[in-house]
Amino acid sequence: MTSCKDCVAHLLGACRGDYCEPERLSLAELAQRSAEAGGHALMAFHKESGRPMWHAVCSRCGLEVSYTLDPDPDTPALFGPLLDTRCESSS
Q1: pTM greater than 0.85
Q2: Nearest CA to 78 among 65, 60, 59?
């Protein structure tokens, strides 16, 4: 079962992101903590049009981290090269 594809608001075409805000903010906080642990400084998250996916980049090195509310089975909701790499530009 996926978050968005089975969501009544999504199925009725009324999704504004309000219904999943707690889950979304939790993933954004996890991404922020993971980025800081690697010395990264995340810029603001931006939503991908038409998909339940958000992206942010490190303002120092440009690596990206993303999260989705609708991951494929056996795929993490939080992903991207930033998670596996220390920031080369951090002091």
Answers
A1: no
A2: 65
Q: How far apart are CA 44 and CA 47, in angstroms?
A: 10
Sheet holding 46-47, edge to edge: 46-47, 53-57, 64-68, 78-79
Q: Please write the tens of the pLDDT for every residue from 13-52.
A: 666 666 678 888 999 999 999 999 999 999 999 998 878 8
**Which residue shows structure tokens 């120092």?**
60
Confirm if 44 and 63 have CB atoms less than 8 A apart: no
From CA 25, how far away is CA 21, in angstroms rounded? Answer: 6
